[in-house]
Amino acid sequence: MNAIAEPKKRIKEGFIGQKMIVLPPNIKKSITNNALIKGFYLTAIGYYPKAAYHDRERRTGSSEYILLYCIDGEGYVYLGGQDHVLKPNTFFIIPRNVAHRYKSSETNPWSIYWVHFSGLNSQLIYERSLDNGQPVVQSVPYDSSRIKLYEQIYAVLEHSYHEKEMEIVNINLLSFISSLVYYKQTNPVDYDNDFVSNSIAYMKKHISQKFEVMHLAKQQGISASHYLRLFKQKTGSSPINYFNLLKIQASCQYLYFTDRSIKEICSDLGFDDPYYFSRLFTKLIGMSPSKYRKTHKR
User: SMART domains, alphabetically (predicted)?
Assistant: First the structure.
């Protein structure tokens, strides 16, 4: 670990307003015998607000994974010779059985939610948080519903350790951690600001129109050759073929949910030739539009 200027004092816990629950050994044992939650469960949970001089070091690591979710202030994680900085709306998962140290900034102490978790599936969840196989600090927008879910987990634990309570606690825990680990996947619009994603969104918005590559490239403000190369790299398809696929997917919805004629659907989606539309539909879907309607129509 890198050399760190030692603070005036080092505190593991005992902060004003802190919350902390550590499950008793018998409760942890009962969880490991519960088929519903033994795959993923917490062993300890807490919240440290404005945790001045918070400093924790484990020279042999922890037997559980540790989630640190910072909502205010700043702190640091030292792991495998790397320094990781946590700022508001970031999180980090420390792998199990690896030496580490984490500490709050002395001048701007962090406020963190933390969880120790284990179970048969805990490693899989941890691996989903990695970037190219390495643990990294990740940013996620603040979400009050995420905090509310955490508080619900804590409130249930304060009330009871009975079987059903432990089940809902750990089901909600998976939702809480998933809201961090899978944020990008569940909120793709927040991340898809590239040319190709914007172009696809444009296609969907103007599904009834007909476009040439030159128009689509100009709409994104790049050359046609650059646009074609980017589009092919990301989708594996040409822009026009992709646009036609979107149109055929839309036509499936019309065939399923409406009584419009095939000719009307063609017109709605910008196809001048119903025969061309039928051939393209059959090629992509594997059956004719009329057969699709007969097969799938309610």
Answer: HTH_ARAC (SM00342)
Same domain for 38 and 98, yes or no, is yes
What CATH number should be reported for the domain holding residue 148? 2.60.120.280
pLDDT over 90 at 7, yes or no: no
In tens, the pLDDT along 38-86 reads 999 999 999 999 999 999 999 999 999 999 999 999 999 999 999 999 9
Q: pLDDT, tens digit, for every residue of 123-156?
A: 999 999 999 899 999 999 999 999 999 999 999 9
In a domain, 13, yes or no: no
pTM: 0.66
Which of 125, 153, 187 terminates a domain? The answer is 187
Identify whether the C-beta of residue 91 lies closer than 8 Å to the C-beta of residue 66: no
Give pLDDT, residue 16.
Answer: 87
